[in-house]
């Protein structure tokens, strides 16, 4: 069996897909994208095409090594996102070839289903108490929300109080044991992160996410010492070597590699195993589409330290199209009591609606995240 085609597509709201076709008629789908840089990543996939055409798609570990190492320059969001989508598509082909879900080829499942959470509140969070209760009534046992709007390195305590009021509203509406994940989104710098983390303790958050950016990963230990709240991070890291430095730096309790950014299933499975050796949990980042979600669920199925899965159905970014629009087997992605069953179909478990993909690709999106500024005109972290 040989690879004969590598096709890329741009689809709303902000995603990219790759389709790898073999001479035996088997097709695999992947989701290579870096939000805001979709066209760049898909161009990178096309640059990697000479390494793929005419080759045996079953040699996934070799492709992972070649695509990472043979180009001399390596790592980073664009290159690793391109590799991630290709890796997903190759696993999809392999699963279909053996007529089995991918996780069965990666050691088999160590759980029967996966807990998921739902996003609420938008970029500038508001009305989160009511939104969280709606999600609880829909069966979810946990939500995630952005903590705050933009914050200066040293800022006023009225903004801190506003965060506390929002989290208090969720705790009041949903009860003591409902899961609340609070995403600092890299908008907060060390001085205010320590303040916020300490004050949020009283609400027993499930975790705080990206209290500072990983470029300052040495600070996580300091923040961890300031509070008794689990710290999660990792969506902006891209290789096992990035995560090695994070784990060695310490202070982090949950890692969040993205299956469409961090090299795909092959790389993230290794990252998850490294984290397990440090007694650190796994909660893959996935504010993306159906192929990325299915990839996450296949890795979650095999990882003892996987604790909860992000998913983007209903997320504020999804304008025009959403996750299940591209899925023919939508029943396989039903959430019941805040959980989803493991994939059941061969491959990644997604029957992609190619007709819609082709239609969307006729008018490629140009999604960009907003540029925020502080009142003094300086750029703020989004």
Automatic annotation (TrEMBL):
InterPro entries with a match to the protein in the record: DgoD-like, Enolase-like_C_sf, Enolase-like_N, Enolase_C-like, Galactonate_deHydtase, Mandel_Rmase/mucon_lact_enz_CS, Mandelate_racemase_C, Mandelate_racemase_N_dom
Enzyme Commission numbers on file: 4.2.1.6
Top-level taxon in the UniProt lineage: Bacteria
Biological process according to GO: amino acid catabolic process; D-galactonate catabolic process
One of the record's GO molecular function terms: galactonate dehydratase activity
Domain annotation Mandelate racemase/muconate lactonizing enzyme C-terminal: ranges: 125-230
Pfam families associated with the record: MR_MLE_C, MR_MLE_N
Keywords: Lyase, Magnesium, Metal-binding
Record PANTHER family: D-GALACTONATE DEHYDRATASE (PTHR48080:SF2), D-GALACTONATE DEHYDRATASE-RELATED (PTHR48080)
Record protein name field: Galactonate dehydratase
Organism: Faecalibacterium prausnitzii
Gene name in the database record: dgoD
């Amino acid at each position: 069996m040989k690879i004969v085609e590598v096709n890329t597509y741009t689809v709303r709201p902000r995603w990219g897909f790759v389709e790898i076709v073999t001479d035996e008629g088997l097709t695999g789908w992947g989701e290579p994208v870096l939000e805001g840089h979709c066209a760049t990543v898909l161009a990178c996939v096309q640059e990697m095409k000479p390494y793929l055409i005419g080759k045996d798609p079953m040699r996934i570990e070799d492709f992972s090594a070649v695509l990472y190492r043979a180009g001399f320059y390596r790592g980073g969001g664009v290159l690793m996102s391109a590799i991630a989508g290709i890796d997903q598509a190759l696993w999809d082909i392999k699963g279909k070839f053996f007529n089995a879900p991918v996780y069965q080829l990666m050691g088999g499942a160590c759980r029967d289903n996966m807990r998921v959470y739902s996003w609420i509140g938008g970029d500038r969070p508001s009305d989160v108490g009511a939104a969280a209760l709606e999600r609880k009534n829909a069966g979810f046992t946990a939500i995630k929300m952005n903590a705050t709007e933009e914050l200066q390195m040293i800022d006023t305590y009225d903004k801190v109080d506003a965060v506390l009021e929002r989290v208090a509203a969720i705790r009041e509406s949903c009860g003591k044991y409902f899961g609340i994940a609070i995403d600092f989104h890299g908008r907060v710098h060390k001085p205010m992160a320590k303040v916020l983390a300490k004050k949020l303790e009283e609400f027993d958050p499930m975790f705080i996410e990206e209290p500072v950016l990983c470029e300052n990963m040495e600070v996580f230990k300091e923040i961890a010492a300031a509070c008794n709240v689990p710290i999660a991070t990792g969506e902006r890291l891209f290789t096992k070597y990035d995560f090695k430095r994070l784990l060695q730096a310490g202070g982090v309790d949950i890692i969040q590699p993205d299956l469409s950014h961090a090299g795909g299933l092959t790389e993230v499975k290794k990252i998850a195993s490294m984290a397990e050796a440090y007694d650190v949990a796994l909660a893959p980042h996935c504010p993306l589409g159906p192929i990325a979600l299915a990839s996450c669920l296949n890795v979650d199925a095999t990882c003892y330290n996987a604790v909860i899965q992000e998913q983007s159905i209903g997320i504020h970014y999804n304008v025009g199209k959403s996750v299940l629009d591209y899925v023919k087997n939508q029943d396989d992605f039903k959430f019941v009591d805040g959980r989803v069953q493991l994939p059941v179909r061969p491959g990644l478990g997604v029957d992609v609606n190619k007709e819609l993909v082709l239609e969307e690709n006729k008018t490629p999106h140009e999604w960009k995240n907003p540029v925020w500024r502080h009142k003094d005109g300086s750029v703020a972290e989004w």
